[in-house]
Amino acid sequence: MRKLKEILRLKYGVGLSHRQIGRSLAISPSVVSRYANRAAQLGIKQWPLPTGWDDTKLKHAFLQTQVKMKKHSLPDWATVHRELRNKCVTLQLLWEEYCERNPGGFYSYNHYCRMYREWLKTTSPSMRQVHKAGEKLFVDYCGPTVGVTDPETGEIRTAQVIVAVLGASSYTWAEATWSQQLEDWVMSHVRCFQWLGGVPELVVPDNLKSATSRACKYDPDVNPTYQQMLEHYNVAVLPARPRKPKDKAKAEVGVQVVERWIMARIRHEIFYSLASLNQRIRELLERLNNKIMQKLGYSRAELFIQLDKPALQLKKWAPTLPILA
């Protein structure tokens, strides 16, 4: 009872803050707040205490009656993470909106940020980076190849699978080509842009030879032909640096998803042309992009429509390129 009465004295008699009282009595400011709130509920707002408030009554009112703490509403971190991908949205703004929605109980801004960082640690590495809508398209090739059988000779020729992933929505595109050579590399980009219906601000390719003429840790040289194509579409290029996995985390995850979701599913299927293989890839891509992502509660297609699609730069396209044969 002595410490309880001292809390009330320091608050109402001396006028100290809850933090100052906590330091003075070596207790948590939250404990001070709990008893101060209980005192306000009981009508105690002065020192000395009102008549009739002896130790027995104080003990019953404060120590034998459970003090109900206000429950703070927990933010929907998946929605917070998605909102941050809009170019003008900040964590400060989202916290202010959260406070407005929960006037009865909300976390401080510092605690809100700390909780968001803790939530991020539970997600995959590619999700921890916040990519702005329409900003980046990550491009890379899958490691495994797919066999295409010549219907006349029975000879099997291997096809490469290229994957592109938009940073904000993780919306995924893929197609098979005969090689990773410059012509296939460049034309795959053109078909990807047409499929998306617009172009991003930046393309982030891996450090393969078709994209860069000289690999460098700090400033890789971009292949001139590749550079000209991107300039035509008013797109900048930012090659991933060697030994910098964060630069291409989104692409690596996208490649892994395509390998597991598409290539694994077609491993026993026989294709007699590149066109039939790409038709099958497009069918599975639609399923992949419409699949709900567990951590976020949205599909890639939904996020693409909400985030990336409105932010992509629109272009006047040439006639649609034919499906690869």
Automatic annotation (TrEMBL):
<dbReference type="GO" id="GO:0003676">
    <property type="term" value="F:nucleic acid binding"/>
</dbReference>
<feature type="domain" description="Integrase catalytic">
    <location>
        <begin position="121"/>
        <end position="308"/>
    </location>
</feature>
<protein>
    <submittedName>
        <fullName>Integrase core domain protein</fullName>
    </submittedName>
</protein>
<dbReference type="GO" id="GO:0015074">
    <property type="term" value="P:DNA integration"/>
</dbReference>
<dbReference type="InterPro" id="IPR012337">
    <property type="entry name" value="RNaseH-like_sf"/>
</dbReference>
<dbReference type="InterPro" id="IPR001584">
    <property type="entry name" value="Integrase_cat-core"/>
</dbReference>
<dbReference type="InterPro" id="IPR017895">
    <property type="entry name" value="HTH_IS408/IS1162_type"/>
</dbReference>
<dbReference type="Pfam" id="PF00665">
    <property type="entry name" value="rve"/>
</dbReference>
<dbReference type="InterPro" id="IPR036397">
    <property type="entry name" value="RNaseH_sf"/>
</dbReference>
<feature type="domain" description="HTH IS408-type">
    <location>
        <begin position="4"/>
        <end position="84"/>
    </location>
</feature>
